[in-house]
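TICKET: design request
STATUS: open
ATTACHED STRUCTURE:
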C-alpha cells in the first residue's frame, strides 16, 4: 500500500475525492497527510473532521521559497509519503523540489493539456470556441502544466456555457479521474521513468481514457 500526501490551497474538492477513492477496494494507496499552504483552507477542515491528518504550512511564514519547500519536503518525509498529489495547490514549486519528487508528484488541471495551460483554463476554452474540454492528470515537470500525461477525461462545451457552468462540469470529471489515475500509478501500471511521456506497463486501464456523457 503506497502512502500519498495531498497538497491543497483552498476548497479541496479534489482532495476529498482522492481521500474517498482511497477507500475503494484495490485503490492501492492510503492518504497519509493533507497539507495546505493556506491555514484557513476549507479543505483542511474536511480532512480533519473525516479522519485524515491535516497540516497547515503557511508559505507566508517562511522568509524564502526555498525555506518553505525545505519544510514541506521534511513534512512529506515525516509522513512517509511515496507520492504527492497537487489538488488545487496554487504555489509554483521550484525545479529543485520537482526534481526531488520526479515521477512521484502528480497534478490535476482543468483542461485537456497541452491546451489551455496556466490560469483560467475554462475561460480560455470558451474563448477559443472548442467543442470539447476536460481535465488532465499528469506528472509534474519543471515546466508548468507540461509534464507527462497520465489520464484525461473529456466533457462537452455547450453553447450556453459560461465559466462557472463549464468549470462545474469539468470539476465533476476531475473527481472521477484523479483517484483512478493515482491508483494506476501507485500500482505501477503507469510510470515516468525516462523521456517526456508516461509509459503504461501492464493491462490498459480504461479509466485513464474518460469520455463522459453529461
Ligand atoms: C480544480 O479545478 C483544479 O483542477 C484546479 O483548481 C481547482 C481546485 O479545486 N487546479 C489548477 O488550476 C492547477 N493549475 P478544489 O480545491 O476543489 O480541488
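STATUS: resolved
RESOLUTION: sequence designed for all positions
ATTACHED SEQUENCE:
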Amino acid at each position: 500500500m503506497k502512502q500519498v500526501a495531498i497538497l491543497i490551497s483552498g476548497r479541496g474538492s479534489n482532495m476529498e475525492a482522492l481521500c474517498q477513492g482511497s477507500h475503494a477496494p484495490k485503490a492501492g494507496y492510503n492518504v497519509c497527510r493533507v497539507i495546505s499552504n493556506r491555514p484557513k483552507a476549507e479543505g483542511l477542515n474536511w480532512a480533519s473532521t473525516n479522519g485524515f491528518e491535516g497540516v497547515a504550512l503557511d508559505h507566508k511564514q517562511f522568509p524564502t521559497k526555498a525555506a518553505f519547500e525545505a519544510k514541506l519536503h521534511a513534512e512529506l518525509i515525516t509522513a512517509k509519503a511515496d507520492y504527492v498529489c497537487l489538488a488545487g495547490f496554487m504555489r509554483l514549486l521550484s525545479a529543485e523540489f520537482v526534481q526531488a519528487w520526479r515521477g512521484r508528484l502528480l497534478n490535476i488541471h482543468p483542461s485537456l493539456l497541452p491546451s489551455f495551460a496556466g490560469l483560467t483554463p475554462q475561460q480560455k476554452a470558451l474563448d477559443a470556441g472548442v467543442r470539447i474540454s476536460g481535465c488532465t492528470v499528469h506528472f509534474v515537470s519543471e515546466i508548468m502544466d507540461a509534464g507527462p500525461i497520465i489520464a484525461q477525461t473529456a466533457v462537452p462545451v455547450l453553447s450556453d456555457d459560461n465559466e462557472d457552468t463549464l468549470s462545474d462540469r469539468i470539476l465533476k470529471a476531475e473527481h472521477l479521474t484523479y483517484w483512478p489515475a493515482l491508483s494506476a500509478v501507485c500500482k505501477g501500471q503507469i510510470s515516468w521513468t525516462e523521456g517526456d511521456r508516461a509509459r503504461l506497463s501492464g493491462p490498459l486501464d480504461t479509466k485513464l481514457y474518460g469520455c463522459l456523457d453529461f
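CLOSING REMARK: The helical segments are 13-21, 42-49, 65-78, 95-100, 121-128, 163-186. The longest strand covers residues 29-36.
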